[in-house]
């Protein structure tokens, strides 16, 4: 289901499901990130559900995400939009170091893919940047809302780099409930 107009980046709280028809395939990015063939196939067949809780503490936005995949895979991400590097470990990506913040598209350093297609070209978006030192990759994401096939969706543009290789993908999420 498309995102209702009252749902914005200022409060993504609720349940979201990745729309695999509208999203790009995850396999190339997961391969570059060193995810095993078996796990990539499970993720490729699974329904990916995000349970998001967004709140503020001392004027700093926090976004906690429980991500579930059918087949029993679960990860939890706790993002604090203060651009401070934080260590995180999960069963899919291992140990990563990430940072998140509010950002205007004009300030995004990476390629144009991260900056284009958004409903709001002048407002703030969420940037999430992650490094995996063990596997040698980085992932840069911009989150926002985008019109896809005439409907408004929560979308994430992702660019993963490993050495001279890079992959990009757009992930589209259906809003389920608050």
Explain what this protein looks like in three dimensions.
This protein has 178 residues and is mainly beta. Helix content is 8%, strand content 53%. Strands 4-3-2-1-10-9-8-7-6-5 form a ten-stranded antiparallel sheet. The protein is globular and about 40 Å long. The two termini are 13 Å apart. The mean pLDDT is 92.
Please give the order of strands in the largest beta sheet: 4-3-2-1-10-9-8-7-6-5
**What percentage of residues falls in helices of 4 or more residues?**
under 10%
H and E order: EHHEEEEEEEEE
* Gross morphology: globular
Number of strand elements: 10
| Strand content bin | over 45%
Profile the largest sheet.
Answer: 10 strands, antiparallel
Q: Which ranges are low-confidence, i.e. pLDDT below 50, for 5 or more consecutive residues?
A: none
Give the CA-CA distance, first to last residue.
Answer: 13 Å
Radius of gyration: 15 Å
The computed structural class is mainly beta
Number of helices: 2
Average pLDDT value? 92
Structural key phrases:
178 residues; mainly beta; ten-stranded antiparallel sheet; 8% helix; globular
SSE diagram, text form:
Elements: E1 14-18, H1 27-32, H2 37-45, E2 48-57, E3 60-69, E4 73-80, E5 86-90, E6 94-104, E7 124-132, E8 137-148, E9 151-162, E10 165-177
Antiparallel strand pairs: 1-2, 1-10, 2-3, 3-4, 5-6, 6-7, 7-8, 8-9, 9-10
How would you summarize this macromolecular structure in one to three sentences?
By secondary structure, the chain is mostly beta strands. It has 2 helices and 10 strands. Strand 8 and strand 9 form a beta hairpin.
């Amino acid at each position: 289901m498309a995102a209702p107009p009252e749902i914005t980046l200022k409060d993504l709280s609720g349940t979201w499901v990745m729309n695999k028809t509208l999203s790009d395939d995850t396999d190339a990015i997961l391969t570059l990130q060193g995810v095993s063939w078996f796990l990539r196939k499970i993720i490729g067949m699974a329904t990916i559900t995000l349970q998001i809780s967004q709140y503020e503490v001392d004027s700093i936005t926090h976004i906690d995400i429980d991500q579930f995949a059918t087949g029993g895979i679960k990860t939890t991400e706790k993002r604090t939009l203060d651009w401070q590097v934080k260590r995180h470990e999960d069963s899919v990506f291992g140990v990563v170091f990430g940072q998140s913040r509010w950002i205007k598209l004009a300030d995004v350093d990476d390629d144009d893919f991260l900056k284009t297609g958004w409903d709001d070209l002048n407002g703030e978006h969420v940037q999430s940047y992650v490094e995996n030192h063990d596997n040698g990759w980085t992932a840069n994401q911009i989150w926002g809302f985008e019109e896809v096939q005439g409907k408004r969706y929560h979308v994430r543009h992702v660019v993963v780099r490993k050495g001279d290789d890079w992959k990009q993908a757009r992930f589209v999420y259906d809003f389920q409930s608050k």
